[in-house]
Structure formats: structure tokens, C-alpha cells
């Protein structure tokens, strides 16, 4: 987080971070549609961007798995802007999607972490996430950096299009600047998260739930657990629980619910009540000082209060730490999980 934000939020932060996009920004502004493509964690970052760009920049956004997009004969127009996200910049499916979009005349933009990677070289323009070297195979800080960059793009686009209230824009920029400090506060809760991991690491399944901007965070939390500790985990939009996953709930199932005090709070609390009524074990990610959920959930992890649109940047941190501690307790290699490669080049 430090690396991503260092010195970049002073003055007009977006001119500095998004410098590589300035030439294509008029095209982004004129786009009839933005298509955002990635794999795995990068796809989850794309989903958050969809929510944000549609809410604030009022532009239609589609999110696609690169592995589907490249094969499914999608409709691509020359006035589409296609944003490709990849930590490594070498993921084969993402590069194939890039080539397809380019062939159809769309403007192609890359967001990646590795300077000089194929994605960086072959896109029309792009942004480096500068998240430092990702040592572990499972993407973690790259996710935070991708979401940061996408948030900046969404806000800049909204500002230029005049679709965001100037006061809300200012408030969101401030919120973004406060993320590193709030992130540090969450990291200080590491020991507490470790103790929660000790309670649940023998579970064979886990469910992750979130709503709105925190639905993709639930997906990402589940993916991290799967990737590094080999526990079967599913992420769901909390409102979907009653359409299937609720059948899984019993006293053996840990359910991680991302439940800060936002507009969805009441609905999420009622989801938690439904889980508790079926004897599920709830680990809730809550806003600091939320005494109500402390009573209701089995365990809570507190995060500082934030604007809902930047909440993914904070709420993903305890989920990454939870997966990390569970993996260590199970004796897994957190940096080199079995069957996974840092760059999926085939
Ligand atoms: C995509 C990805 C990662 C995942 C793992 C396998 O990589 O699915 O999100 O954690 O490392 O590859 P990338 O295209 O973002 O480099």
C-alpha cells in the first residue's frame, strides 16, 4: 500500500499516477462502453471498477474473464475502450484478449505491475501499479494497487464528464489518501486475526459474503483461501445466499461476512442472523466500534470507517491475512502454492 501511494496523492495525484493515460483519456471519455478484462484476482479488481465507473462516471461497463472473452466471439467496436488488468503482464489469456480487441480497432489500455512486460508493450497506453515485486504466487498487494489505479481512473473520468458531485469527488480523493494509514491500523490487528485462524483452520469448506463494492472482495477472500491453503471456499453476493449456498450452512461452516456500516448494513445483518439461526460460525469484518455485530457474530475483525467506494482496499486486508494464517497453520507454502504459477503463460 505504501508503495502504491507514495508521494502520489499530493496536488493533482491523478496527473502523476495516470500520466501514461493522458493521451487516450479523450477516448475513454468518449467511449460508449468500457470492457474490463482479467483473470483471477485481476478479474476481481475489474468487478470493483465496474461498480465504481457505472456509479460515478455513468458509463456502461462489462467485465470479462480473459479466458472466456478470447474464445467466445464477443462484439467489439472501434469506439470501445478495453482495459486489461494483469499483475504479471504475461498471462496468456489476457494477452490473447488484448490481441482480439486490438484487431477489432478498440482502444486497449493495460494496468500491470511488471515494467516492460508484454501487456505494457502491446497496449496503446497504460498505468503501472508499482506495487513492488510480488514474491508470493497468489496476488495480494497487486490487487490493492490495481483497485487504487482503477479508482483513480473512475474518479478522473467522472470529474471530466461532470457526472460526480465536486464535493463527493473531493471527499473520495481524501478518503483514498487516508487508506495507507488505515491499512496500517488493520495490520496491527494481525495477532487477533491469527487467533481467529487458529479456531477455524481445520474447516474443509468456507463461505464468503459481501454486498455492493464488497461482493468482489468476498470473491477475492475466497480465492486467497483456496489458492494458499487449499480449503474449498466460495464467494457469493450476500443477497444470493438464499438462492443456494444457504443449504451448506451448519455448525461446521465458517462464513466470513464483510459487513461494514454502509448502505447495505441492515441487509447484511439480516444475512448474518439467517446464518446464525442455522448454527453457522460467522466471522464478520466490521466497522470499528460496531458493538451490535460483536454480540451477534462468533468473531469480528474491525476495520476503520471509510467511504463505501474505497472500502474494498481496507476490507481485503484481513481476508488476505486470514488466508495467510490458515495456510501457515495447515503447513502450506504460502509463497509457492501447489499447481499455481506466477505467470500463467499457456
Ligand atoms: C492472474 C492470476 C492471479 C492469481 C495467480 C494466477 O495473474 O489468476 O490473479 O493470484 O497468480 O494468476 P495476472 O494476470 O494478474 O498476472
Short characterization:
This protein has 346 residues and is of the alpha/beta class. Helix content is 46%, strand content 17%. The chain folds into two domains: 2-177, Rossmann fold (3-Layer(aba) Sandwich); 182-329, 3-Layer(aba) Sandwich (Rossmann fold), CATH 3.40.50.
List the helices and strands and how they pair.
Layout: H1 2-5, H2 13-17, H3 25-30, E1 33-38, H4 41-57, E2 61-65, H5 66-69, E3 80-86, H6 92-103, E4 107-112, H7 118-122, E5 125-128, H8 141-161, H9 166-177, H10 179-187, H11 190-200, E6 205-210, H12 215-229, E7 232-237, E8 254-259, H13 265-277, E9 281-287, H14 291-296, E10 299-303, H15 311-329
Bound molecules: 1-O-phosphono-beta-D-fructopyranose.
> Mind telling me the CATH class of the largest domain?
Alpha Beta
Determine the N-to-C terminus distance.
30 Å
Strand order of the largest sheet: 2-1-3-4-5
Shape: globular
Q: What is the average of the pLDDT values?
A: 92
Number of separate structural domains: 2
Structural class: alpha/beta
Helix percentage: 40-55%
Q: How many helices? A: 15
The strand count comes to 10
Following the backbone from N to C, one meets helices and strands in this order, namely HHHEHEHEHEHEHHHHEHEEHEHEH
- The CATH topology name of the largest domain reads Rossmann fold
Query: What CATH architecture of the largest domain do you see?
Result: 3-Layer(aba) Sandwich
Largest sheet: 5 strands, parallel
What is the CATH superfamily classification of the largest domain? Answer: Glucose-6-phosphate isomerase like protein, domain 1
What compounds sit in this structure? 1-O-phosphono-beta-D-fructopyranose
Subunit structure: Homodimer.
EC number: 2.6.1.16
Function: Catalyzes the first step in hexosamine metabolism, converting fructose-6P into glucosamine-6P using glutamine as a nitrogen source.
Keywords: Aminotransferase, Cytoplasm, Glutamine amidotransferase, Repeat, Transferase
Amino acid at each position: 500500500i505504501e508503495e502504491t501511494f507514495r508521494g502520489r496523492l499530493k496536488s493533482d495525484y491523478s496527473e502523476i499516477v495516470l500520466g501514461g493515460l493522458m493521451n487516450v483519456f479523450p477516448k475513454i471519455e468518449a467511449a460508449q462502453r468500457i470492457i474490463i478484462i482479467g483473470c483471477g484476482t485481476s478479474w476481481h479488481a475489474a468487478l470493483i471498477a465496474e461498480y465504481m465507473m457505472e456509479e460515478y462516471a455513468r458509463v456502461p461497463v462489462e467485465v470479462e474473464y480473459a479466458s472466456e472473452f478470447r474464445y467466445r466471439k464477443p462484439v467489439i467496436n472501434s469506439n470501445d475502450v478495453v482495459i486489461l488488468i494483469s499483475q504479471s503482464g504475461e498471462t496468456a489469456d489476457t494477452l490473447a484478449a488484448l490481441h482480439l480487441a486490438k484487431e477489432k480497432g478498440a482502444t486497449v489500455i493495460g494496468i500491470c505491475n511488471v515494467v516492460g512486460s508484454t501487456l505494457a508493450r502491446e497496449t496503446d497506453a497504460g498505468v503501472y501499479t508499482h506495487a513492488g515485486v510480488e514474491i508470493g504466487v497468489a496476488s495480494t498487494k497487486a490487487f490493492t494497487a490495481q483497485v487504487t489505479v482503477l479508482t483513480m481512473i473512475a474518479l478522473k473520468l467522472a470529474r471530466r464528464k461532470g457526472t460526480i458531485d465536486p464535493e463527493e469527488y473531493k471527499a473520495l480523493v481524501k478518503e483514498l489518501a487516508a487508506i495507507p494509514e488505515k491499512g496500517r491500523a488493520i495490520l496491527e490487528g494481525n495477532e487477533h486475526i491469527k487467533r481467529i485462524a487458529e479456531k477455524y483452520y481445520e474447516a474443509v469448506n468456507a463461505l464468503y459474503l459481501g454486498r455492493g463494492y464488497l461482493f468482489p472482495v468476498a470473491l477475492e477472500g475466497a480465492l486467497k483461501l483456496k489458492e494458499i491453503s487449499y480449503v474449498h471456499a466460495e464467494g457469493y453476493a450476500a443477497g444470493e445466499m438464499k438462492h443456494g449456498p444457504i443449504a451448506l450452512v451448519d455448525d461446521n461452516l465458517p462464513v466470513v461476512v464483510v459487513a461494514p456500516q454502509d448502505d447495505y448494513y441492515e441487509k447484511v445483518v439480516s444475512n448474518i442472523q439467517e446464518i446464525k439461526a442455522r448454527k453457522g460460525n460467522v466471522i464478520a469484518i466490521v466497522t470499528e466500534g460496531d458493538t451490535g455485530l460483536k454480540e451477534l457474530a462468533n468473531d469480528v475483525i474491525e476495520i476503520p470507517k471509510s467511504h463505501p467506494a474505497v472500502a474494498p482496499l481496507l476490507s481485503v486486508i484481513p481476508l488476505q491475512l486470514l488466508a495467510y494464517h490458515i495456510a501457515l497453520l495447515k503447513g502450506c507454502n504460502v509463497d509457492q502454492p501447489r499447481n499455481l504459477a506466477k505467470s500463467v503463460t499457456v
